[in-house]
């Protein structure tokens, strides 16, 4: 599969654009700096790596990623600029911190006993499990003891290598290859391609990547849960104290919650059959309609991948899709909606796709300009599914409950209450299956993310 390789290649090419003070070469002063030095210089130097769970450039060429957004928020709290220094491997990052190339490392690094002896860590950011991952139908390892019977490869100087070394004392049959030139994601790709039996990866990395590589299967967790944190040199006590203070503050906690919401909240429990079907249909069905989605998106404030994802949620890209409820076509339009949009044949994608985009745009325009993106688009999608009237009720209820009617995160909590008589009996438009639009938006976000990585 070319999805992740294309994505990674594009990102590496874009690194040369220099957004947000990126410095792939890591040039410049290499002395370990105090917090006062950092503030005086007006710049925080951070080592990271290019991956979906850490840092990348998005489809608009803008810096993004969980670690990037979090460390950018911290730099903003210090009143300094962020200079991100991209390294190829975890080993390069660890060496870079030791040599003073960066003030800290924000790269999805696990706290291990070996690393604690050489570095200092911030407060915990998240907890993950290291997971043994193999390919469905391939040569797999169902237990630690069985790891000696498969080809196993992990990045050199990774936490996985340390975990395997610890297990080897009680399971001497375990063998593996430590690769000094690669990261976790390329090894997952290698397993998916059948060129390697198994590897080890953090659970958050697995959750994101197996949506593009659906034949990957988690065999078991390797040991107990572990913490991710930022890593600094041992003598960076002042910086560590400032990082910990910020992470414990309301602003820091809000930043962590915001990052988790943006990058992980839409990822559903893995569905092998459903995900494999989507990946196959991206190759076989989407090309027939891609130009129609692109043409429709050009007239409205949406990306063509969003329209494609919505259409997949509606019909799985089946032009002649029909429902017992009376909706029809690739965008599942009602007869009344289609008529109002000038559609004479709902089963004709050339009519249905632009009409669906126009209707979504209409819903989008009926929400306040004060609602930030992407929340406003999520509200529009929910209205497409549930109706603007019920969304109005949900916003009214949100205000009564002290929630923010302009926040999709808050609206996700309020919408399910539309099916609870204690709440809907006092609302203008009454009962509604409020959980449906929540799931609807969640699935579209998930589909769009997969489509973007697979197509672009």
Automatic annotation (TrEMBL):
Catalysed reactions, as listed in the record: Exolytic cleavage of the (1->4)-beta-glycosidic linkage between N-acetylmuramic acid (MurNAc) and N-acetylglucosamine (GlcNAc) residues in peptidoglycan, from either the reducing or the non-reducing ends of the peptidoglycan chains, with concomitant formation of a 1,6-anhydrobond in the MurNAc residue
Job of this protein: Murein-degrading enzyme that degrades murein glycan strands and insoluble, high-molecular weight murein sacculi, with the concomitant formation of a 1,6-anhydromuramoyl product. Lytic transglycosylases (LTs) play an integral role in the metabolism of the peptidoglycan (PG) sacculus. Their lytic action creates space within the PG sacculus to allow for its expansion as well as for the insertion of various structures such as secretion systems and flagella.
A Gene Ontology BP annotation from the UniProt entry: peptidoglycan catabolic process
Domain Solute-binding protein family 3/N-terminal: residue ranges: 43-267
Gene expressing this chain: mltF
Protein name as it appears in the record: Membrane-bound lytic murein transglycosylase F
Keywords linked to the UniProt accession: Cell outer membrane, Cell wall biogenesis/degradation, Lyase, Membrane, Signal
Example of a GO MF term: peptidoglycan lytic transglycosylase activity
Organism, scientific name: Spongiibacter nanhainus
Example of a GO cellular component annotation carried by this entry: cell outer membrane
Topological type in the membrane: Peripheral membrane protein
């Amino acid at each position: 599969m070319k999805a992740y390789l294309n994505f990674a290649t594009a990102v590496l090419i874009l690194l040369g654009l220099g957004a947000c003070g990126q410095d792939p070469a890591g040039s410049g002063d290499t002395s370990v700096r105090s917090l006062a030095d950092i503030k005086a210089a007006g710049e925080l130097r951070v080592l990271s790596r290019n991956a979906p769970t850490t840092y990348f450039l998005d489809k608009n060429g803008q810096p993004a990623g969980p670690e990037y957004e979090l460390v950018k928020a911290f730099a903003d709290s210090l009143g300094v600029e962020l200079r991100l220094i991209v390294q190829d491997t975890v080993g390069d990052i660890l060496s870079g911190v030791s040599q003073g190339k960066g003030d800290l490392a924000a790269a999805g690094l696990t706290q291990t006993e070996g690393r604690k002896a050489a570095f200092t860590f911030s407060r915990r950011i998240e907890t993950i499990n290291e997971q043994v991952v193999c390919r469905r139908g391939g040569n797999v390892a169902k237990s630690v003891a069985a790891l000696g019977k498969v080809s196993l490869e992990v990045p050199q100087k990774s936490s996985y290598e340390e975990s395997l070394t610890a297990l080897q004392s009680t399971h001497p049959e375990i063998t593996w290859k430590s690769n000094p030139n690669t990261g976790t994601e390329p090894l997952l790709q290698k397993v998916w391609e059948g060129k390697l039996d198994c590897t080890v990866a953090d659970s958050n990395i697995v959750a994101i990547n197996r949506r593009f590589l659906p034949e990957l299967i988690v065999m078991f967790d390797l040991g107990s849960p572990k913490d991710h944190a930022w890593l600094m040199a041992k003598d960076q006590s002042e910086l560590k104290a400032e990082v910990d203070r910020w992470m414990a503050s309301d602003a820091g906690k809000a930043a962590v919650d915001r990052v988790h919401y943006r990058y992980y909240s839409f990822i559903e429990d893995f569905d092998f059959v459903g995900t494999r079907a989507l990946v196959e249909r991206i190759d076989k069905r989407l090309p027939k309609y891609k130009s129609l989605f692109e043409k429709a998106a050009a007239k409205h404030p949406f990306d063509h991948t969003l329209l494609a994802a919505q259409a997949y949620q509606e019909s799985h890209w089946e032009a002649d899709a029909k429902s017992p409820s009376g909706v029809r076509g690739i965008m599942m339009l009602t007869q009344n909606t289609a008529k109002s949009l000038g559609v004479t044949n709902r089963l004709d994608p050339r009519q249905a796709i632009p009409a669906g985009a126009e209707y979504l745009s209409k819903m989008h325009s009926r929400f306040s300009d004060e609602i930030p993106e992407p929340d406003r688009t999520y509200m529009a999608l929910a209205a497409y599914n549930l109706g603007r009237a019920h969304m109005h009720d949900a916003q009214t209820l949100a205000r009564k409950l002290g929630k923010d009617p302009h926040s999709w995160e808050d609206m996700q909590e309020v919408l399910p209450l539309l099916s609870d008589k204690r709440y809907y009996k006092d609302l203008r438009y009454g009962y509604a299956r409020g959980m449906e639009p929540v799931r609807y938006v969640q699935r579209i976000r998930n589909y769009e993310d997969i489509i973007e990585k697979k197509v672009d």
